[in-house]
Amino acid sequence: MTKVKIKTPSRIHMSLIDLNGLLGRIDGGVGFALEEPNVTIECEDSDDVVVRGGNNVSRFQSVARKLSQTFGKGIKIDVLSDYEAHVGLGSGTQISLAVASAFNEIYDLGLSVREMAEITGRGGTSGIGVAVFEFGGFILDGGHSKREKPNFMPSSASKAKPPKVLARYDLPDWKVVVAVPNLKGFYGKEEVSLFQKFCPIPVEEVSKLCHVILMKLLPSVVESNLDEFGEAVKMIQRLGFKKVEIDQYGDLIWNLFDHSDYPIGMSSTGPAVYSVVDTNAKSVAREVRRYFEDIGLNVEVYITEPDNIGAEIFYI
């Protein structure tokens, strides 16, 4: 009997890059892996599909049953840790790839991470979640050609293959404050409608965003320059589709940004927000918590670090 333990990172999705497509490509993204929260599961072979524990039982069951039908095998899954879906931290991709990896290891299927992503339908717009599972660290992906993916659609509605990674770097031992307020995120039909309503993004916005990513964000990562990284985060929030995403929460997220002493960004379609800091993580966490609680919202706050490893698989 083979039994495996799989631990995956979560991820910050900083921004999609090109939702205009003038140059024949769309999507593209930047983001990075986090140590916490994470998905950790223990799995073994089984005649049936059995899932125990965790907060996303139905999601685990759905993925496991689909893969069971695909491979003609069963699996038993004990969920040791997971985190809320549809908050902007990428749990869907991590759950899907964790379960697929369990099948892959237990039954020696010989699948690559990209093949598992295609089988489970992940990475159709952004490649950040798939890439941080495989590599960890900071990721820049190159999006899709319009021949492969002609329409502006979120990953949940796209059948395109995961995009290729253009650049991957380790991040320094910075601290990352992540706050998840008790707000309904945008996903499913709402997210599809968002893409349909606001895309294509004006090419001027895309050009400005590319300038920030190439000449401020990427150099700040390579040079381990936290101040420049923070400035890039602040600039990204005001550009392209990221601004559209933040606008969906009215003034709630903007007011946090405007009144904070620290650079704060929103991950994916939110509502999770993040701030990359060094020694003052606790004070930033207190500030963000106080902001949301003062306006009557419960909030879960993590103080974590970048994950430069990606998913880990242990035989037990």
Task: Provide structural commentary.
It comes from Archaeoglobus profundus (strain DSM 5631 / JCM 9629 / NBRC 100127 / Av18). It is an enzyme of class 2 (transferase). Pathway: Cofactor biosynthesis; 5,6,7,8-tetrahydromethanopterin biosynthesis. InterPro entries: Beta-RFA-P_synthase, GHMP_kinase_N_dom, RFAP_synthase, Ribosomal_Su5_D2-typ_SF, Ribsml_uS5_D2-typ_fold_subgr. Catalyzes the condensation of 4-aminobenzoate (pABA) with 5-phospho-alpha-D-ribose 1-diphosphate (PRPP) to produce beta-ribofuranosylaminobenzene 5'-phosphate (beta-RFA-P). The radius of gyration is 19 Å and the shape is globular. The protein has helices at 57-71, 91-106, 113-120, 128-135, 189-198, 203-222, 226-236, 240-247, 252-259, 281-294, and strands at 3-18, 25-46, 49-52, 74-81, 138-141, 144-145, 165-169, 175-181, 265-266, 273-277, 299-304, 312-315. The strands form two sheets. Strands 1, 2, 3, 4, 5, 6, 7 and 12 form an eight-stranded mixed β-sheet that branches. Strand 9 and strand 10 form a beta hairpin. Helix 2 crosses helix 3. It has ten helices and twelve strands. Helix content is 37%, strand content 27%. With 316 residues, the protein is α+β, with helices and mostly antiparallel strands. The chain has one domain: Ribosomal Protein S5, domain 2 (2-Layer Sandwich), CATH 3.30.230. The model has no long low-confidence stretch (mean pLDDT 96).
